[in-house]
Structure formats: structure tokens, C-alpha cells
Amino acid sequence: MCDSIQIKGDGFFQGNFKKAMEAFDANHDGLLDFAEFIEMNRKFPLVFWPLFHFQETMQEKTLGKRMWTKIRARQLQIDAWRHYMKRFLGRAPPPTWKERWCGCISTDQRLRLIAAQLYDQDQLHLKMQTKSHPGGKRTEPDRKMLQRGTSKGEASSRNTKHSALPTTSSTSTTGSRTNHVGNPTHK
Length: 187
Hints:
One of its GO terms (molecular function) is calcium ion binding. By secondary structure, this protein is mostly helical. It has helices at about 1-5, 10-25, 35-45, 50-60, 65-85, 95-100, 110-130, 140-150, 150-155; strands spanning about 175-180, 185. Among the domains are: about 1-45, no CATH class; about 70-130, no CATH class. Helix 5 (about 65-85) crosses helix 7.
């Protein structure tokens, strides 16, 4: 990033940028994460002002502020639906009043389809990631699901450290079984 922002190869700017990266790059990976970007922009707002100004100018000149506001609102709606589907295991959110009564003139059905397709892509990506790293770490939702679904005795009897998915069935010393998502079932 530093090389691409240089001004005609001037080393003075490169040195200042490297100092700023050292100061704000908390995890020392050479990249600005979103949290690091927010912190840097809060402390030194003029650093990114040219980029923000360029973005505003481009948006005004291409589609106009009103259209970009509509695009952003549409993206937020799709993100909200994807989050709902992720939280409720792929179930679509219930239709709103506007969708029920004005469905023939509303574009919400098309946006719901986009959200469903993006959710499917997210799930496929997770599945591919799990297959490529079978001994990898569990994600935070997996850990929460296992903690809710199993007792301490069952969790210690199973080897959950290296498995990519919850086991299909396991029997603890009490004789209860767990189903494919780690929730206890009775015999």
C-alpha cells in the first residue's frame, strides 16, 4: 500500500507513511484492518480526506447522491436479510407489511432473491473452508452452539479440539446421545 501511495517516489512521504503504519497496525500484518482504519481516521482525519473527497466527487458525477443513497439502502436491506438467514439457519425473514400489500409493485422480492443467493454462497464458502482445513479451528458460532447443546461431561468426553464439524452421534457416561448439531437427544 505504501508503494502505491508514494508521490513521485519521494522517500519522505514513504517514511511518514511507514511510521503511521507502525503506530496504527496493531496486529503487525502490514495491512490496515477496519478497526485500525477507524482509529487512524479518528486521530488524523486529514490522512484519508483526499480519498473520501474523491469518492464523493465520483458519486456526484456518475449517478448522483440520491441514487447512491438508494443503492446503500438496498445494500443494507440485503445485509439485514443475510444476517437473519444466517441466524435462523437459512430461513427467510417474514414478509413486511409493504411486501404483503404492495408486492406487485415492490422490488423487495428481487432483493430477497439476491440475499438468498448471497447466503447460499456464504454457506458454500464455509463448507469449502471446512473441507480445506479439516483440523482447523472452530468458528465462534460453532463454539457457542456446542456450549449450548452439550453439558460439561459430554464436552470433555468428546474430542472437539480438532474436529471441523460436530460429531453425528456420541454416547456419554449418562447414556444420552447428541444429534448432528450437538444438541442432546434421548434414547
